[in-house]
Design brief:
The protein has 199 residues and is α+β, with helices and mostly antiparallel strands. The chain contains 5 helices and 9 strands; from the N terminus they run ααααβββββββββα. The strands form 2 sheets. Strands 3-2-1-4-5 form a 5-stranded antiparallel sheet, with no helix packed on it. It has a 4-stranded antiparallel sheet with strand order 6-7-8-9, with no helix packed on it. It is globular.
Length: 199
Amino acid sequence: MLVKIGGSADIGTLPDSHPLHDLRRAVADPGFQDRTKYLLDLRNDNSHLVGPDPTELPHVRDRAAQSLQDLLTSVSFLADLTLAEVTRTDWDSLTKQGQVTYRELVGDHPVVRTQRIPYPSPEVEPGSLYLLDGEQRLHLLRPYLTGRICADCRTWSTFHIGGAKGGTVTLKSMGCGHTADDATLRSAFQQVGLLPAGK
């Protein structure tokens, strides 16, 4: 998913301060791509019951561990960001000051802490996911990531694009793996380059 988001052509249209630019630079590195392909190939071989020769196993294990460590290091900046679901915004047009209430999405439990911060802009969407950086700036993640109640689990989950067929986009939960169809997101995915335009 990081590669899919980082490879989106329209990330270039986001403000320079948006953290997705850092992600794009990380995934554009040929070393990142090689390590990702190596680990994905290992995973696919394992799922098809095709593993390395037992004599090669120590080398394969060491290379896989190092590849994973290198990938995590290259995107370590993500740990400095907070995934936030904005639940409410309040804006005073006279003072040009506002407040944003958000759920701090940390861990794997659907019950999370709610925070409220002052915010200097009315351009914040309640119901959308954002990255909150160390300077208390919100960076919109829609449509790359969306949050909703999973129809199967009945718990809140973070979803990414899983595929598209006809006019419907299939979203896939990053937590439980369940899917949800949504015809309303197709144009948003086309706008950011995750789906071809006009189809």
